Amino acid sequence: MRVLVTTVGLVGHIFPLVSIAHALRAAGHEILWATPQPELVAKAGLPAFDPAPTANPMEIIQTVLAKYGLGFQISRDEYAKEIVMGGELLARLGEVTIDRTVAVTQGWRPDLVLHDELQPAGPLIASMYGVPAVEQVLSVCGYREIRDEMRQHLDEVYDRHDVVGPPEKSAFLDTRPPSMRHREFDGWSMRLVPYSGSSVLPDWLLEPPARPRVAITLGTTTPGFMDLSAFRKVVEAASQVDAEFVLATGDADISGFGELPGNVRAAGWVPLHSLLQTCSSMIHHVGGGTSMTGLVTGITHLTMPLSADAWQVSEQIMKRGLGVEVATPDEIDAEMIRTVLFDSSMRAAADEVKAEIAAMPSPADLVPRLEELVG
């Protein structure tokens, strides 16, 4: 069968769907992926095209944030406002991909549409062709409220393509660990097999660390919107802990961190999953994909939520006993890091969640169900 994959053009929306796409391809099915930043998909070994070559996702984000008077950093108390803002933002990011995706697929008619839960092009195109739509969750919380809000901004594009509602057949791939499902979705349980990009791994990452290793990451979007000097206290606290710290911030200018102490390695960009497999803990911004990868690898968490939905994810991590949360990076101190590194109850909880995830059906296990859905 022909499977159209369509995602928002951001790393956190593209990478989570790579493994199920590979599973479908390995089973003999044809994949075509529509997303801005198609080079990320091509590096994963899958065919892709750019459905919005003239659009700039970062400009869209900045424009919508400004409209609602919000900065990149959003407090827990602004969650209701973020739902409204997020609905419009994701509608704008998604709708710019729809027209060209429709044009391309008129000559390449899909039998199934696979999409991330916040890409509105997926359900619309599936409805247009009368084929099933399958969405995949992006975080331990899911984004149901934002998804529902998003639909309210899409009447014009639905009318333009003569689509009146959702597809008749659909499914939901739920990668959340069973013990962290604070609400139930009517979905198919599937193990997240993390994909974090392709790379030749550096030698130091192939060797067991001489002492506990802690990853420090801010994701792929944060460095473009925030002055990294706001996180200087994190590095200062790390200098007082007997552990190795890996600063994984991609191509971002790290001068804002100040002079790095001897136990902090500036790694640039390395595949997050490969890095976390060697770590005991992670200090992070609570991105959906970052957090889920941490759960898969069984590490503990020191969280610095930077958006209202990140506060929701962090809340679930705390409820499961997996770490410590701070309101701002300035609150982090050496004792917090030691707690996250060495607390036995946190370590046991992380091991339990890792085992839960390992027991979930793999992407390959889900392929027959997807084939049956198509019929």
TrEMBL record:
Domain (Erythromycin biosynthesis protein CIII-like C-terminal): give its ranges. Answer: 233-373
Entry annotated with the keyword Glycosyltransferase: yes
**CDD domains found in the cross-reference section:** GT1_Gtf-like (cd03784)
Q: Where is the Erythromycin biosynthesis protein CIII-like N-terminal domain?
A: 23-219
UniProt-listed SUPFAM superfamilies: UDP-Glycosyltransferase/glycogen phosphorylase
Q: Which Pfam families match?
A: EryCIII-like_C (PF06722), EryCIII-like_N (PF21036)
Provide one Gene Ontology biological process annotation. Answer: antibiotic biosynthetic process
The UniProt keyword set, sorted, is:
Glycosyltransferase, Transferase
Name the Gene Ontology molecular function terms of this record. hexosyltransferase activity; UDP-glycosyltransferase activity
- The highest taxon in the source lineage is Bacteria
Record-stated family? Belongs to the glycosyltransferase 28 family.
PANTHER family reported in the protein's UniProt record: STEROL 3-BETA-GLUCOSYLTRANSFERASE (PTHR48050), STEROL 3-BETA-GLUCOSYLTRANSFERASE UGT80A2 (PTHR48050:SF13)
Spell out the protein name for this chain. Answer: DUF1205 domain-containing protein
> What organism is listed for this UniProt entry?
Lentzea tibetensis
